[in-house]
Amino acid sequence: MAVYTEVPDEELAAFMARYPLGDVRSIKGIAEGVENSNYLLATDTGQYILTLYEKRVAEADLPFFLGLMDHLAAGGISCPLPVHDRDDNALNRLAGRPAAIVTWLEGVWVRRPTAEHCRAVGEALAAMHLAGGDYTVRRANSLGIAGWRPLFEGSREGADSVRAGLASDIGHELDALEAAWPRDLPAGVIHADLFPDNVFFLRGELSGLIDFYFACNDTFAYDLGICLNAWCFEGDGAFNVTKSRALIRGYRSVRPLSEAELTSLPILARGSALRFLLTRLHDWLRVPEGALVVPKDPLEFYQKMCFHRSADEPSAYGIDP
Amino acid sequence: MAVYTEVPDEELAAFMARYPLGDVRSIKGIAEGVENSNYLLATDTGQYILTLYEKRVAEADLPFFLGLMDHLAAGGISCPLPVHDRDDNALNRLAGRPAAIVTWLEGVWVRRPTAEHCRAVGEALAAMHLAGGDYTVRRANSLGIAGWRPLFEGSREGADSVRAGLASDIGHELDALEAAWPRDLPAGVIHADLFPDNVFFLRGELSGLIDFYFACNDTFAYDLGICLNAWCFEGDGAFNVTKSRALIRGYRSVRPLSEAELTSLPILARGSALRFLLTRLHDWLRVPEGALVVPKDPLEFYQKMCFHRSADEPSAYGIDP
Lengths: 321, 321
Description:
Shape of chain A: globular
Radius of gyration of chain A: 20 Å
Strand order of the largest sheet of chain A: 1-2-3-5-4
Number of strands of chain A: 10
Oligomer: homodimer
């Protein structure tokens, strides 16, 4: 939840005059998303999301993200479509921040996903991987395996304050993952953050994907590993193999997985758990004074990582032989 | 900014089934309003605001507030209209909290009001006072003059930590106001919190009033005094007499003010400044651990109070003789 930047009346009017969207009928800050300031914007022509990009998003990456949404939408993926201004710019500035308007997507994110939701997410993830295939702009994954050790170095000292022995455990985990990480699997544009709050459903059907601000070029099956962590654990920490079977089946029904991808899935899921453990640990140890956002518990992903470490056979994920 | 209560999928579905509004197409927490959890709700039939009433609002008062919105809307005031369920209840429960759905009001609140906005607010305030005239439910003003001394007692000890001498100054102010407070002025239902964020404008015209959760029975001219504090001071603390003249003229064009009301306006505005000083001081001294909301500066209203204390002639407000 966060609205960081307040938009003065006159600046909004000048900004909106660039777009062919008519007059503003309503603008309300949305209490979702912790990275940027998001406003629900109603105008004469419809409803939109106005995003002011806060400092955590690198300005140089914005053309990649906005171009990707254009590209995926053109490829049949239901996602927010950036609105271009009269000079064909999708990106402008407002209240001192980079800002963009995207179309409004109907749907509700599911607080307690079922196996059927997981199947639909698997399908949508595979469709996104295929649709991104011919997107020519590239963005390295700054939170991929090459980024984990530097990220860890910044948190090593405080890690044991969160859990005794955590620093040493993560150190060994990094050694093991770097040694065993698969390097030649099919790759392309991945979402990299497809958690339940980034997937909308409408009347039981998946209605769209949002929040492409972690999207990058990386291994497709790693993105699937992220979804296993995001969708297939219960609130009590138990792994639900029915959900993971449904998610993987859904994915394979749209984009087949090679033998190498299937065999690698456990280590990719394990690495993905470490990635979220590391970013959460980083945030946990650096809560700013007067913070509006309570950081998420890093140990949730420590437990997920331990699950993948112990269950590193494809069968543990319900993968059909 | 605040969304306190998270609504589980199944509970929302059961709640919505009570209302003739069709399926939910979207639900988003709104980062505005600090008292309650507000969601923007889109369904097959339109857009609504879903409010979960948090602890700060007394549950026993909710029928007064919701009935008032019904009453004012029927009297031609543009305000959110409570949606009644199939059993004609405007108030239900959701996620363990009292909850209501009201209609969506188009418009944008003005960050920097002009004299023309002030005139429109004066008109709307007077129209609301007239329309509330035959509302038979009553609610005492718990934040009226009788409530100020008890409120102050809870903050007296900490007051000097905010500004040296503040406790003694407020004590003298209370004595003076209690002695001079006018008791026989025309009274009825007042809004009691008509700040700029509670007034929507659309294409330069006032499109509606929201947030009736401080409404109560009290002196009409006191409500006008609140608006002088809410609308007529500049960001640097200066009082803008052009705006107050416009606000009071707008009011009088709809509901005439008696000589006694005009003469009392300075002391009513002074009391209203003290009311907001006291509630802000209360909140300032009690910021909960891990608070999501940064409290507003109480000294803003100390300065406003000082203005009214020094300028206690009607002419200082631009009141026409």
